[in-house]
Amino acid sequence: MAFTEELIFLILQFLREEGYDQASHLLERETQIFFDMKYFEKLVLNGNWDELESYLSGFTKFDENKYSRKIFFEIRKQRYLEALDNKDHPKASDILVTYLEVFSQFDEELLKEMADLLTLNDFR
User: Fold this and answer.
1) If pLDDT is split at 50, 70 and 90, which confidence band does 81 have?
2) Range of the domain at 43
3) CA 119, CA 54: separation in Å to the nearest integer?
4) Dihedrals φ, ψ of 80, to 5°?
5) How many Å apart are CA 72 and CA 94, to the nearest integer?
6) Is 106 found in the same domain as 77?
7) Measured distance CA(92)–CA(54) in Å, rounded
8) Which residue of 1, 15, 83, 106 pairs with 91 in a disulfide if CB–CB is 3.0 to 4.6 A?
9) C-alpha distance from residue 95 to each of 33, 38, 49, 98, 100 (Å)
């Protein structure tokens, strides 16, 4: 590990110990040196989709490779399914158009199937 990386790791450790969690996650994202999987899991479990995508975007871009595309798709799909489960069809529709439409170039049929879920009273 280079001196700079060691220094950043020590700063991250200090920030966490002092309770500056947001600052530590911002530094992780900015430097791309340390990915905090526990933080990532916490965001998933709490449904913090915006922060989750923001954090992940510090390490990979949606179109960087097929794995990045897959994880971003799964995050956005979960957001969509939660809106459907809450019977919030306007929000689900917005998510479909705003966040999921970009994936139609990779699997148009899947997006059509997801759009069809909007027509159901209970998609389960």
Assistant:
1) very high
2) 3-57
3) 31
4) -65, -50
5) 17
6) yes
7) 20
8) 83
9) 31, 26, 12, 5, 7
Q: What is the pLDDT of residues 1-42, one digit of tens each?
A: 577 888 988 999 999 999 999 999 899 888 888 888 999 999
Angle of CA points 123, 98, 84, to nearest 5°: 15
Distance, in Å, from the CA atom of 14 to the CA atom of 113, rounded to the nearest integer, reads 48
Phi-psi region of 37 (alpha: psi -120 to 50; beta: other; left: phi over 0): alpha
72 and 27 both lie in a single domain: no
Long-range contacts formed by 23-28: CB under 8 A, 24+ apart: 25/55, 28/55, 28/58
Domain annotation covers residue 42:
yes
As given in the structure block, the two tokens for residue 79 are 């957001």
Q: How many domains does the chain have?
A: 2
- Do the domain assignments include residue 124? no
* Encoded tokens for 8: 């950043």
Q: How far is CA 78 from CA 6, 27, 75, 104, in A?
A: 36, 27, 5, 16
Look at residue 22 and tell me if it is in a domain.
yes
0.90 exceeded by the pTM? no
87 with 101: CB under 8 angstroms?
A: no
